[in-house]
Every structure is written in C-alpha cells, then in structure tokens.
Design a protein that fits this description.
Blueprint: H1 16-33, H2 38-44, H3 50-81, H4 84-100, H5 110-174
Helix pairs in contact: 1-3
Length: 183
Amino acid sequence: MATMEEPGHETGIPGRRQSDLKQFFRTSLLSLLTACSRQDFLDSFSKFDVAEQTTLYRLYTQVIVNLHQTLEGEFDALCQELQVGPVLDKVEELVEEQSLDPLFSDKTNVMDSANGLTTAKKREIQRLTALLQRAGEQNRQMEARIRLLKEQPQEASDTANAIKNLKTGITAYFEGNDKLPPI
C-alpha cells in the first residue's frame, strides 16, 4: 500500500483504490465508445457504396480512438488537479488502520443489532406477560372477595331471621308452661 508523506504528493505507486478507479473509468469509457459494432455502423450507411462505407468506418474509428485518448487524458488531469490519488491513498490507509485496531467495532452489523433488539423485545414481552398474569390473578382474588363480602350481609340477615324464628318457635312451645326459659 502506498503511503503519503504530505497531502498532494503521491509516492509514484498508486494505491489499490486509485488503480481500481482508473481501471473502472477506462473500462466504462471503452464500453461506451465501442457500443456500435462495425455491422451496425455499415447498416446505418447502407445507401453508400462499399468504398465510401469503408472510408467512413475508418474515420469513425479514428474519431473514437482520439476521443478515448482525449477523455483518458482529461480524466487523469482532473484526478491530478483534484488530488484524487492521495485522497484515495489516505482512505485506504485509514481503512487498513481501522481493520487492525482491536477497539474498532468491525463486528457490529445490522443482523447483530436486529438480533439484540429482538432478544430485548422478547424479554420485555415475557416480563409484561408475567405482569398481566399477576394482575389477572389479583383481579380474580378481588372479585372473589367482593362476592364473599356481598354474600355476608345476606348470611347475617338469614342468621338474624333464623334466630328470630327460633325464638318465636321456642316462645310458642313454652307458652303453655308457666316457666319460660330465659332468652
């Protein structure tokens, strides 16, 4: 990997990113400029005779070659002017430093984050479900207690009526006797 001493000063050996950029540009340019095949070109000038077609195609080829060279030169000049090479070299250097840094968290990715979030949400759902079950049980206990309290006045009233009836029955039984038991 090429390192740089000062911004704007290349060591002469381009880094991988710089080489990749130039190769990509050249390949893309070549693909664009040679998109028209010889047969397609000749079909476009089918009204001309063979000699004229050959001359036109040769001229077309020269234009394409010159255009390709000119565009490559302009691209290289623009890269030099904007100091693309040193910047890409610096990026490459920083990426390499980070990959060697044990404190740099390279392992964090979307799936790890999603798994962590899913686990936390599952725990939260379990906790809330347990709370809901506890609240349901407390509600059932309260309802049972309320029913019991509602039934107790009825039982007290029934007990009072039973005592009254018992008292009346005992009084009626002993009415004929001179001695009534103390009540």
